[in-house]
């Protein structure tokens, strides 16, 4: 029934535990361009860094979000000095 009110959800950012870094990912797809981004915050909500990018390839938004997560994981390994 179109007269019924929509159920609303509170999707506010939630702080991680003290000593933990939380990384949020998001993506958007427009035609053949997929844009993705991420932001890292500490337990106080302080932004530690972020990245964004795009790919000139048609894909679903879930794949673009996965690409953002993969990008962050690769950068983490590169910066860890583990040689992986």
Q: What is the succession of H and E elements?
A: EEEH
Strand ordering within the main sheet: 1-2-3
Which regions contain 5 or more consecutive residues with pLDDT less than 50? none
Indicate the mean pLDDT: 77
Rg to the nearest angstrom? 17 Å
- The level of helicity is 10-25%
Strand fraction equals 25-35%
Total count of helical runs of at least 4 residues: 1
**Number of DSSP strands?**
3
N-end to C-end Cα span: 55 Å
Label the structural class. Answer: alpha+beta
Write down the overall geometry: flat
What about the largest sheet? 3 strands, antiparallel
Please provide a brief summary of the model:
The protein has a 3-stranded antiparallel sheet with strand order 1-2-3, covered by helices on one side. Helices cover 24% and strands 33% of the residues.
Primary descriptors:
alpha+beta, 1 helix
Explain what you see.
This is RNase H type-1 domain-containing protein. With 84 residues, the chain is an alpha+beta fold. It has a domain at 22-77. It has 1 helix and 3 strands. It has one helix at 61-80, and strands spanning 22-30, 33-41, 47-56. A 3-stranded antiparallel β-sheet has the order 1-2-3, with helices on one face. β2 and β3 (47-56) form a beta hairpin. The longest helix has 20 residues, at 61-80. The radius of gyration is 17 Å and the shape is flat. The relative contact order is 0.19.
């Amino acid at each position: 029934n179109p007269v019924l009110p929509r159920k609303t959800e509170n999707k506010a950012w939630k702080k991680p535990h003290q000593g933990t870094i939380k990384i949020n990912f998001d993506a958007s797809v427009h035609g053949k361009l997929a844009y993705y981004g991420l932001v890292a915050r500490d337990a106080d909500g302080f932004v530690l860094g972020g990245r964004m990018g795009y790919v000139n390839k048609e894909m679903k938004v879930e794949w673009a979000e996965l690409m953002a997560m993969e990008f962050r994981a690769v950068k983490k390994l590169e910066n860890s000095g583990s040689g992986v």
